[in-house]
Amino acid sequence: MANLIELDSLEILAIIDNELDPISQSPNSSVIQTGGLKEIGLRGLLSKDDPRGAGAEMRMDKICCSAHGLSLLITAVVGDTRRTILFDTGPEESAWERNAARLGVDAGVIERVVLSHWHRDHSGGMLKVLEHFAAARKGKGGEGKGLPIDLHPARPDFRGVQPPGMPVFSLEADPTFESIEGAGGVVEKSDQVHDVLDGHFAVSGEIPRVTDYEVGLKFGVRFDSETGKWGSDEKMADERLLLCKVKGKGIVVFTGCSHAGVVNASRHAVELGGGAPLYAVVGGFHLADGQPPHIQSTVNDLKALDVQVLLAGHCTGWRAKYAIEKEMPGRLVPSFVGSKYTL
Length: 343
Known about the structure:
Elements: E1 6-7, E2 9-16, E3 32-34, H1 37-42, E4 71-78, E5 81-87, H2 93-103, E6 112-114, H3 120-123, H4 126-137, E7 147-151, E8 158-161, E9 169-170, H5 177-182, E10 185-189, E11 194-196, E12 201-203, E13 220-224, E14 229-232, E15 241-246, E16 250-255, H6 262-272, E17 278-284, H7 292-304, E18 309-313, H8 318-327, E19 340-342
Parallel strand pairs: 1-15, 5-6, 6-7, 7-10, 16-17, 17-18
Antiparallel strand pairs: 2-4, 2-19, 3-19, 4-5, 8-9, 8-13, 11-12, 12-15, 13-14, 15-16
Helix pairs in contact: 2-4, 7-8
């Protein structure tokens, strides 16, 4: 079980996510959403002598761009104390750098990076994050201080998918442990549950597979450089979740892709949280390619868990979001890149 302290509030900034919508607002009144057109417009303040007489200009280069992946800057607030963690780093360096710049992210506030699992759409921006962290700390007394990078020890050489009768479609390789250390990261490997940032957060070990319909990544394979062969990798056993506890609300669980199943992840978070209510599930639910019976079973079980906020993004898919809104009206909060959500 995790030893979590209770947070006064929680802030979640979506630096990378699959969808962009700076107009729609959260339909859930318990979630404060910012980062829409009003805030974007205020990034383009004009001088008083502007010939148009306008106070601000809606600049397109101030709007984030969506990308296939996930990177969430998460800040736990307790009194005057703020503790910040980066959950995943998106698919590529340029995407993370572009959006972080447009959002005015100070990488120097990041105290730890947690990688949910070894897939390029979650690890691809890692080295750029480290570069920005070092630059932010330079001249502020933080030179030479490495950024802890929380990783599962079982890094695959390559991962991919191989549908029946088809060749392997390989993903790009994840950054190596050596390249992360070379960029200034302090690699910390763990496949067991552990508290981080003095109990403000906890990271799981392997997520137990309990449901009969959440079976992992269909046709998933990994390459073993020692044998030179691809082998089955549907279970994705290295996927981990991040969790915290908000005072008066309950457990908040962050899931990168939910290859282990979003219901399995949610139930495990409740177990790790000592049976506290599950308040929110945040991240990718991996239902974009889910068949209707799978989606319905998922929604039924999430409903049974009485989750109050489903901040669904990345690989969740529009069909699953529609089903959630239909069955659990008002609890869906679509995750849009560039938005900040306060719980």
